[in-house]
Write a structure and sequence with these properties.
With about 325 residues, this protein is of the alpha+beta class. The chain contains ten helices and seven strands. The chain has a domain of about 100 residues: Chitinase A, domain 3 (Roll), CATH 3.10.50. Helices cover about 55% and strands about 15% of the residues.
Length: about 325
C-alpha cells in the first residue's frame, strides 16, 4: 500500500484591493471544495526528495524525475485530502489530549524525556509542530480504521495456514543473499561539490570493502559521521530490498561489492557475503510462527480495505487534476 503523506494546511486567500497587483497561485488539483496549489506540491517534493534530486547531475534528467515526483506526490496529497474530508464527514476528531497521550506513550516506550524527543525531531529536520501534526494524522487514521475498516475484516485459521504454505513454497525457490555494507550520507543542500565528496567517499569505501576491511573499520576512518557501518545486514530474498539496491545486489556473486547505489537515504555500498537458496530445514514450524503470520495477514487486510475505502471515496468525489 502506498504510504499516505501529511500535507500542510492551505491558508485561505484574502482578496487584495483592486489597485494592488495580485499574484495568482497555480492550482495543481481541486478535490471537491478544496484546492491543492503547485507550491504545496513543490514544497513536499523538496521536503521528501531533495537528496534524491540533488544526486542527479544532468539538469534534464533532474527535471524529468522532478515531474515524476510531482505527479506521485500530488496523487498522494489528493488521497490525503479525501481522507481529511472523510474524517469531517464521519465526525472523527483527534483532540489535543489524544495527541499529548500519544507523545507521552512514545517517550515511555523509548525511555526518553520530552526534551530528548524534541531534540531528535529537530535533528531529523522537523519542527515540533510538524511532528505533532503527523501524530494527529496518525490518530485520525487509526480511529477511521477502528470505525470503518476493522469491522470488515475476518481472518480464519485456514487463511493463516494458506499463507504459511505459500511462503514455504516461495522461500524454497527464491534466492537468498547474505549482506554487509556501509552507507555514505548525502549532504543536505551542500551543492554539487559536496555531492562529489560523498561519491568519492563511497568509492573509497568500496575499495576498502573489496580489500577485506570491515564496515566498522571503514566507519571509524571518517570522524565527521558521514560514513555509517551497516554491519552484518543479515539475509534477504529477492524483492525484499528497495530498488535499485535489489537489482544491484542480485547481479553479484559472493565476495563482490556493488558500485555506490544512490538513494534518497544516501549512497549504499553493499558486499554479498554469501548467496544460495533457503534450506527448508531452516524454516520454522507453523506453531512457532502462527501468531506472527496472523498479525501479518491481519495488517495486510487492513491495508487492502483502507485502499478500497479511499478508492471508493475518491470515485465519489469531484477530483480535477490541473498539473
Amino acid at each position: 500500500m502506498k504510504h499516505l503523506i501529511l500535507i500542510p494546511v492551505l491558508l485561505a486567500f484574502i482578496p487584495a484591493p483592486r489597485a494592488q497587483a495580485v499574484i495568482v497561485e497555480r492550482i495543481a488539483a481541486i478535490v471537491n471544495e478544496d484546492v491543492i496549489t503547485l507550491s504545496e506540491v513543490d514544497e513536499l517534493v523538496d521536503s521528501l526528495h531533495a537528496r534524491e534530486l540533488e544526486a542527479i547531475q544532468d539538469p534534464e534528467d533532474r527535471k524529468v524525475r522532478r515531474d515524476e515526483l510531482r505527479r506521485k506526490v500530488l496523487d498522494e496529497m489528493i488521497d490525503q485530502r479525501i481522507l481529511t474530508q472523510q474524517y469531517d464527514r464521519l465526525q472523527i476528531v483527534a483532540t489535543d489530549e489524544d495527541v499529548d497521550r500519544m507523545v507521552q506513550a512514545i517517550c515511555r516506550q523509548n525511555g526518553i524525556t520530552l526534551d530528548t524527543l524534541k531534540n531528535e525531531i529537530t535533528r531529523q529536520g522537523l519542527s515540533y509542530q510538524e511532528y505533532l501534526n503527523q501524530i494527529r494524522q496518525h490518530i485520525l487514521q487509526s480511529k477511521l480504521v477502528e470505525q470503518q475498516i476493522r469491522p470488515r475484516i475476518s481472518v480464519t485459521e485456514d487463511d493463516i495456514k494458506q499463507m504459511y504454505t505459500r511462503q514455504l513454497g516461495e522461500l524454497s525457490t527464491k534466492e537468498v543473499v547474505e549482506l554487509s555494507g556501509i552507507l555514505v550520507l548525502l549532504p543536505r543542500g551542500g551543492g554539487p561539490e559536496s555531492m562529489d565528496i560523498a561519491r568519492r567517499r563511497a568509492e573509497e569505501a568500496r575499495t576498502l570493502l573489496e580489500a577485506g576491511h570491515s564496515p566498522e573499520e571503514i566507519e571509524r576512518r571518517y570522524a565527521d559521521g558521514s560514513v555509517r557501518s551497516l554491519g552484518a545486514m543479515g539475509k534477504f530474498t529477492e524483492g525484499e530490498l528497495m530498488e535499485p539496491l535489489n537489482t544491484a545486489v542480485f547481479q553479484l556473486q559472493p565476495g563482490s561489492v556493488t558500485d555506490p547505489v544512490e538513494t534518497s537515504q544516501g549512497l549504499y555500498v553493499i558486499q554479498v557475503v554469501s548467496r544460495g537458496h533457503q534450506d527448508p530445514k531452516d524454516i520454522l514450524p507453523y506453531e512457532e510462527v502462527r501468531d506472527q503470520l496472523y498479525q501479518r495477514y491481519y495488517n495486510e487486510q487492513i491495508e487492502t480495505q483502507l485502499e478500497v475505502f479511499i478508492r471508493n471515496a475518491r470515485r465519489d468525489s469531484h477530483v480535477e487534476i490541473l498539473l
